[in-house]
Amino acid sequence: MRGDIVLSAYFLSLSIIFGNSMTEDEIEKYRQKTKAMFYHGYDSYLQYAYPYDELKPLSCSGHDTWGSYSLTLIDALDTLLILGNASEFRRVSKLLSETLNFDMDINVSVFETNIRVVGGLLSAHLLAQRAGVKVEEGWPCHGPLLRLAVDAAERLLPAFNTPTGMPYGTVNLRYGVPPSETSITCTAGCGTFIIEFGTISALTGDKRFINAAFGALEGLWKSRSKLGLVGNHIDVLSGKWTAQDAGIGAGVDSYFEYLLKGGILFGLPKLVDMFKEFYGKVEQYLKISDWYVWAHMEKGQVTMPIFQSLDAYWPGLQTLWGDIGPASRTLQKYHSVWRHFGFIPEFYQIASGEPYSGRAGYPLRPELIESAMYLYRATKDPYFLEVGRDMLHSIESSARTPCGYATIKDVKTHEKEDRMESFFLAETTKYLYLLFDEHNFIHQRNESEHHQTTSSLSLSCTTGSAGYVFNTEAHPIDVGAVHCCPSSRLTHVPEELKFRHLFNVRTKEPLKENSDTDAKTFTGAYTCKARPFHKKLSVLGAFFEGSKEFSGDLDEQIIDP
Ligand SMILES: *[C@@H]1O[C@H](CO)[C@@H](O)[C@H](O)[C@H]1NC(C)=O
Ligand SMILES: *[C@@H]1O[C@H](CO)[C@@H](O)[C@H](O)[C@H]1NC(C)=O
Ligand SMILES: *[C@@H]1O[C@H](CO)[C@@H](O)[C@H](O)[C@H]1NC(C)=O
């Protein structure tokens, strides 16, 4: 089944759009430009910002944003190998395994720590042998980066100790869930763990992780509305929705993504069935002339006809699912917004063709290029190379600074802001590179290749040959590796759902007097934190009540930019 889904994406080659073909030389030129873009950002981070989390590309300095763990370095690590830089990958792997320590009195986002830190470390751990790292006896079931990933993930587990199985949004890395933590979190914040936690359980045999991820997925599944939709924010203690707008974008996005990708990675039809069910409902209730909008989860009526930058992952997911025609039509809509402004604003009003005021920025997000990469792999239609070329061009000409690449504050003015999110080096540059690098190892599948490092590994262990599934931060997880470690019995996991209450989560230590002067709370503008109940939708730290901007008959208003 896993194979069928992946292959359908590769063999269903329906060219619908037909861009002007690009010569090999042009493609190579863009590949080199992408590489130079990555190194300008990466070298600047090392020079001006390390060991802080992120680079500040206007002030040429660094700052901590999501934790205090050199986040950009963790996030960029596997991109180095994808760009062919094995020696730097080895240097950074060693550096991180010698310096990272998660035993800190800091409050962090459970979701972001999982996708960026746990995901980044797991991916790098599984790529270590390919990068020429002298791996430990028993790799991939053992290794220093795996131990770090497990350490970080273990500190997130207390968040899952709730009556619904859905996690709190924030934990203190040392003390567990802060006593006054809100019980409201977003849908994606509940449903985006199965790739990382399932991989940890598969490699270590420790079932607490996959059980926690499954418990949260089950909690969400049970909370869907009669129409079969999920809302935007939920109370993890009561299971009641506090923001009932259903959509594919911010606050929800990677929940759908992880159902399909988790199903593919672990060969779990139950997850694929859940995805299939949601996919039908999304297409039925949220789609209007190839755009996706927000609708009330119980009543189904459209509440906000906006396109969000984060929505742009959807055509890539549709492509993985094999629905290529609709995927390319939607991608063309999104690309038309890019061409109009040179970037995609965080929120775009479909009816008026204008950015939503206060949400007009572009923080160097990857989703459009991610979808273009999937569609190009599936169709080989050069149109999708042109999407990459357009993105490369705008970022290079408007976001570049002497020491990195800057968030665009407003897509209409191209004014810059002093921030370079770690996903620029983890995702945006990686997907661009993979679009232009036909022969990258990430694209290859070689079923006849069996890398067996030790005789104790299971016979179905085929690292590096069964393809990769990207987590939502673009960290590739080696599909073959999840079957390597003898203790894993992943195919039986769904049955274990009923034992969820047996989790052995870290018991909360009493909150000690705070003696650590560096103690900080990292609840950056992008986490899913507490949202007032009366607010319609809360995304990226801002609240939207809906407004007259969102009224009238949508079908008649929708125009193309
Ligand atoms: C690898 O990255 C380092 C740091 O940016 C750089 O100095 C080195 O030239 C790169 N090597 C290759 C082969 O690209
Ligand atoms: C697949 O792996 C085998 C064994 O390593 C190798 O001989 C063969 O050339 C590979 N095929 C491709 C298409 O890479
Ligand atoms: C973490 O959050 C709790 C509750 O909001 C707060 O009391 C505590 O001081 C925070 N810890 C740090 C290190 O900021």
Note the main sheet. Answer: 3 strands, mixed
* Ligands, deduplicated: 2-acetamido-2-deoxy-beta-D-glucopyranose
The total count of helices amounts to: 17
Shape: globular
- Could you tell me the mean pLDDT? 86
Structural class per helix/strand content? alpha+beta
Task: State the low-pLDDT regions, or none.
Answer: 1-15, 489-518, 523-527, 529-561
The fraction of residues in strands falls at 5-15%
Helix content: 40-55%
Order of strands across the biggest sheet? 4-3-22
Distance between the termini: 40 Å
Radius of gyration from the CA trace?
22 Å
How many β-strand stretches?
24
Summarize the structure.
By secondary structure, this protein is of the alpha+beta class.
Can you describe this structure?
By secondary structure, this protein is α+β, with helices and mostly antiparallel strands. The protein has 17 helices and 24 strands. A three-stranded mixed β-sheet has the order 4-3-22. Strands 5-6-7 form a three-stranded antiparallel β-sheet. The chain has a three-stranded antiparallel β-sheet with strand order 8-11-12, with no helix packed on it. Helix 2 runs antiparallel to helix 16 and helix 10 runs antiparallel to helix 11. The N terminus and C terminus are likely disordered. Bound molecules: 2-acetamido-2-deoxy-beta-D-glucopyranose (3 copies).
Ordered list of secondary-structure elements with their pairings:
Elements: H1 2-11, H2 24-49, E1 54-56, E2 61-63, H3 71-82, H4 86-99, E3 106-109, H5 110-127, H6 144-156, E4 170-172, E5 184-186, H7 187-191, H8 194-204, H9 208-222, E6 233-235, E7 241-243, E8 245-246, H10 253-266, H11 269-285, E9 287-288, E10 291-292, E11 294-296, E12 302-304, E13 306-308, H12 314-321, H13 324-341, E14 347-349, E15 354-355, H14 367-379, H15 383-399, E16 400-401, E17 404-405, E18 407-410, E19 415-417, H16 423-436, E20 468-470, E21 476-478, E22 520-521, E23 537-539, E24 542-544, H17 554-557
Parallel strand pairs: 3-22
Antiparallel strand pairs: 1-2, 3-4, 5-6, 6-7, 8-11, 9-10, 11-12, 13-14, 14-15, 16-17, 18-19, 20-21, 23-24
Helix pairs in contact: 1-10, 2-15, 2-16, 3-4, 3-5, 3-16, 5-6, 5-8, 8-9, 10-11, 12-13, 12-14, 13-14, 14-15, 14-16
Bound molecules: 2-acetamido-2-deoxy-beta-D-glucopyranose (3 copies).
